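Task card 7
Instruction: Convert sequence to C-alpha cells.
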Amino acid sequence: MDQQEQDLKKIYACPFSGCTSVFNRPYRLEQHQLVHINFKPFACPEPNCSKTYTNKSHLDRHIKSAHKEIETDFIYSCPKCMKKYANRQNLKRHIKVSHIENNKPFSCDMCRVNFKKKHQLRAHMHVHNGIKSFRCPYCDKEFVTLYEKKKHMRNHKTYLCEHCDIKFNRWTELTTHKRKEHQSEYICHECGKLYRKRSHIIRHLKKHFPSRRKTFSCPYESCNRKYSRNSNLQQHIRIKHLGLTFDCSTCGAKLSTKSTLKEHMKRHTRPKIIKNVKKTLKSGRKKRKDENTMKKSSALKLAGISEKDVIETSIVPIVEKPFVCC
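Output:
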C-alpha cells in the first residue's frame, strides 16, 4: 500500500482550529486531542522524575530509554549510517527523518511548504490562521513556536531553600540567599561574632575561656614543657628526648621536620650566584696610562679647538697700576 492510499484512509480530522492532524482511527484522534487540553494521564513511576505522557507506549519507551540499561545483545542500529538507538520507535523516526528521499513529511495544505518536524508545521500555521499553537499550562500564555514556550516555562520553575523553605525563581537568587542567610550560622554568645565554620568558632572560644584550654605536658622528668597541640608535643619528644632528627646528607645539619629538611636541601641544589667584585690595585687592576695628565675634552675635539688655545686665552696678563698718593 503506497503513501497516497494511506492518506486517503485518514478521515478523522482534529476539530481544533489551526491543527491539520488527520488520523485513520477514532481512538487515535481522541488520544491526540489530549495534547490540546494538556492532559497527560500516564506519569513516570520512577522517583525524582516528573515526566508525563498522553500515551502508555510513550511512557514505556521513556522508561526503557531513561531508567533502564540498554541490553547489549540487542541494539537498534540504522542500516545506513550505523547509529544506535534505545528502541525500535526511535530508529523508525530516525530513518523517516534522515534517510527518506523526502525527509520533510509534514506539509502545509495552504502553501505546500514541507517541514521536517511536526512542531515546525504547527508554528508555520500561525502565518495563515493567526493562532498561536503553543500554550503555557500554568498561565495560559500562547506562543508561536515551541522554543518560545520552553523558554517561557523556565520562569515557572522554582528553587526551594532547604533551610527556610523560601522559593526563588532563579538558581542564582537561591545561592545568594544561602550565602547571606545560612552560611554564618555559628555565633559567639560572648562577643557576638559570626563564623561560617564550626572549627573557626571553636578556635575563637579558646580566647574567652583560656582555663578550659587543653594542654599537653611532656611526660619526661625534669622537663616542664607544655604545648597546645599534641603534634607539637610529639615533635618535642622526638627531637629533644629521643634524638630523632632529619639530618642533611651534604652538610650534616640536624633539622626538626621533614619539610624544613626539604627547604634546606634546596640551598645545596640551587646554582651559586657569582657576584661581580670590583677589582683594585691590590687584586690585580692595572694602572691608568694617562694618569697625572690633562684629559682631552671631546667637546673641544668636535669644535676643532686645541688645548693650547684654551690655555692661552684663559691666562689674563697682570697690569701694574701707578701708585697715586691720596
